[in-house]
Design goal:
By secondary structure, this protein is mainly α. Helices cover 53% and strands 2% of the residues. Among the domains are: 91-136, no CATH class; 235-287. A hairpin with a 3-residue loop joins strand 1 and strand 2 (242-244). The chain is elongated and about 125 Å long. The termini are far apart.
Length: 287
């Protein structure tokens, strides 16, 4: 029997069934991509190193913010720009800036919504010249005028109210001082004051204590004392005759009615005038 060597069967080193890797479905792929896109990152890392410390870029946190800022800046390119003068600028330099902002080129060019009759033309002219020198815009100038008018109106009302209050106080003071002679002495003072000063001066002159000249107690007392010194009799004012005492009135009546005067001669051209004058004098004398 011959020895036969039987070669062993060569077996394949590879398994017949190879494990296959699972293929990702489309849904899984979309999820992976979405996560990759939404991954947070630092915007500053996108800035080149040479520019990362620029202050102008410190406020940007996202690419969207940066793009918006860039687009806004592009829109401003070519727009009208006004250079702000430095500390060495002259008045003319500032005037050019004011013109670009809308200030008129001449004081006469200021136009307002209110009527010219509402303000004093001389004062308005002076105001426009000052407003033009300061470079005020028309709307600014108008607001200043309205503010001044309102302030002046309030001041006038306050002054008027203060004068009325002071007048009431003065009346009470004089009533206590003059007593039963209050009416008589006030009348004397008023008559003499009206003959000495104009009505406007007495009513519109405001003194430091808030009283008007015609209501000031010291002024009233001064005129009352002066009236007493001028005559022992009451000072009487006749129409167009000025202030006269009772004795002076009686003397003039006697002169007008003496014998041979026009008063007794009806045919005399001055008869009626003399009679009327005597009548007025007697009327004043009798109160």
């Amino acid at each position: 029997m011959q020895d036969q060597t039987t070669a062993p069967e060569v077996q394949s080193e590879q398994p017949t069934d190879v494990a296959q890797q699972p293929t990702a479905t489309p849904e899984v792929q979309e999820t992976v991509l979405a996560k990759a896109e939404t991954k947070e990152f630092n915007f500053k890392d996108l800035i080149p190193k040479d520019y990362q410390e620029e202050k102008a870029l410190q406020n940007f946190n996202t690419m969207e913010d940066f793009v918006k800022s860039y687009l806004s800046a592009q829109k401003l390119v070519g727009a009208n720009k006004i250079a702000v003068p430095n500390k060495m600028a002259t008045e003319d330099d500032w005037q050019q800036v004011f013109r670009k902002l809308g200030a008129p080129s001449k004081p006469e060019d200021y136009k307002y919504s209110f009527n010219a009759e509402e303000v004093n033309p001389t004062q308005l002219k002076a105001f426009n010249e000052t407003a033009h020198r300061l470079g005020l815009l028309p709307q600014q100038a108008e607001r200043l005028i309205k503010f001044y008018n309102e302030m002046s109106t309030d001041a006038e009302q306050e002054k008027f109210q203060a004068a009325e209050q002071r007048q009431t106080q003065v009346i009470e003071e004089l009533k206590k001082e003059f007593g039963a002679n209050y009416s008589k002495r006030i009348d004397q003072a008023k008559k003499l004051a009206s003959e000495t000063f104009s009505k406007e001066l007495l009513n519109e002159t405001i003194l430091k204590d808030g009283s008007r000249l015609g209501d000031n107690p010291e002024v009233i007392k001064a005129f009352s004392m002066l009236a007493d010194k001028l005559s022992e009799d009451e000072i009487i004012k006749g129409d167009g005759l000025g202030y006269m005492t009772a004795n002076e009135i009686e003397k003039e009546i006697s002169e007008l009615t003496e014998d041979g005067s026009p008063y007794w001669n009806k045919s005399h051209p001055n008869h009626k005038k003399t009679v009327d004058q005597v009548f007025k004098l007697r009327e004043q004398l009798n109160g």
